[in-house]
Amino acid sequence: xxxxxxxxxxxxxxxxxxxxxxxxxxxxxxxxxxxxxxxxxxxxxxxxxxxxxxxxxxxxxxxxxxxxxxxxxxxxxxxxxxxxxxxxxxxxxxxxxxxxxxxxxxxxxxxxxxxxxxxxxxxxxxxxxxxxxxxxxxxxxxxxxxxxxxxxxxxxxxxxxxxxxxxxxxxxxxxxxxxxxxxxxxxxxxxxxxxxxxxxxxxxxxxxxxxxxxxxxxxxxxxxxxxxxxxxxxxxxxxxxxxxxxxxxxxxxxxxxxxxxxxxxxxxxxxxxxxxxxxxxxxxxxxxxxxxxxxxxxxxxxxxxxxxxxxxxxxxxxxxxxxxxxxxxxxxxxxxxxxxxxxxxxxxxxxxxxxxxxxxxxxxxxxxxxxxxxxxxxxxxxxxxxxxxxxxxxxxxxxxxxxxxxxxxxxxxxxxxxxxxxxxxxxxxxxxxxxxxxxxxxxxxxxxxxxxxxxxxxxxxxxxxxxxxxxxxxxxxxxxxxxxxxxxxxxxxxxxxxxxxxxxxxxxxxxxxxxxxxxxxxxxxxxxxxxxxxxxxxxxxxxxxxxxxxxxxxxxxxxxxxxxxxxxxxxxxxxxxxxxxxxxxxxxxxxxxxxxxxxxxxxxxxxxxxxxxxxxxxxxxxxxxxxxxxxxxxxxxxxxxxxxxxxxxxxxxxxxxxxxxxxxxxxxxxxxxxxxx
Length: 677
Description:
- Helices cover 51% and strands 8% of the residues.
- The longest helix has 73 residues, at 601-673.
- It is α/β, with parallel strands linked by helices.
- α7 (162-168) links the parallel β2 and β3 (175-176).
């Protein structure tokens, strides 16, 4: 600051400081104390006074020292948005937003009531002349040599600008102070004279670009010859169109134009600015101020001083600049956060996915097969005795000839190990991903695809296991009083049930183990295990006097359906009808031999009625079994469908839904950061 004080001493006696200046009354010690006896105080009091004098000046009343609430809210939302998005977006996408957050944090560490304004322009536009005219002193070198300004020069209408100037990288030798008396409207202004943005000298453009990213406002100076320069409009004005409220465009060298020519050039300049997308502050609306003046003659300079003074007095330049920075960063991030329409998983997409998985595991085919199995069991249990005898005869004959015989009784056909269809599973996942990611921005659509693909790895195998666990139903009583039996449900710890269940570390493929203390299952190996051990049956259903499973089995065989009570009644009725037939035949033979006087039609009618009643009873049982068989098939289909749906939800739907939820949360943060909500 030595150069500043020496410059002031050359201009004459020191005048009172501006209202915004720090109290720096001159005190040379002994002489001053003699001239002003009231300042002769004890050492302690004098130290306290010097400490108060050395303290930084307080800002004037009604001056913004902190950012407004809405802007802070937007900054916080942008900070959260950047932090939560780094796992999904590449660093280059978030670099601009990170730079804005960093610059905002640095700017908040300096007085926000100070306004940093840069004067920028092309070679020969008169930037330095305008800088000196606003400062009312020859502070920056101006002349015909090009380029004249090789380094930025600062002029501060405040004593609290050292921190800001350090941030801007202005060296001590390039810092100036305006002469006194100072314009009160410029209190708190820091004015910069920048090098030419189109200078041929190396490093000038880099200095301009660096400082334009740090200052609060810019005064663009153009001249009648180069006001339409493509470099100015395409490199600066068009990309900075969002900073209209902190932009001034000044047509300098008005003294070189006549009145009509000046109006034409000014109108053409406004047209170009409008094409650049730069909003113009006309009729009281916010936007860039467009002025015409002559820095050399002073024509129109008063209007610029008035507009600039009002802008500085508002003390909102830093907040306006940060708001424009956030708006620009939000606009560049919009393509990666704003989707077309309302993407997401609809109920229809979920149901369609579950239906495709159910089709892949063959839920409907398994249900139909289970229904047919039930009907066959009912037909065999309620069929005629003669039909049973005929089937037994065929089975015996086929066994003798070595042919595979049909299973007898009411055994359930052992369910084959059905594997899920891989193509159907892949198609289900592709369809779900397409519907879930439709309209999403590309990074989030890719995240949804990755979540679905990662979850789909091993999904067919998981569906195979779920289908095997749900291949036979757990014992329960339906509405018709029918009990369905078989393997345990997934997660059921009870012993017995479906083959392949591990209990006690051994695989169950036959009857229960009895007489031991291990509680495991012995491999049946197809041999009969019906020998008794005390009160226990090792090949049957009892172990220690209690049931250990729900399905009846033969030694090493497949589970059997538990016969409903009405099946037993039908079987008993069939036996009675056979006995009646036999009794009727014996009676009829006795009558024919003359051993009884009963009319022949009585034993004949009894025999015929019993013979006709057996197939009628069998037909009626088959009709009655259709409803329970249908329910049995639907129950099997439902279990397989639910098992497949649970597997699909755990592996695919939930990860996809989590990614969509993350996107919605970040979309909400973006709306706040962009000021749209």
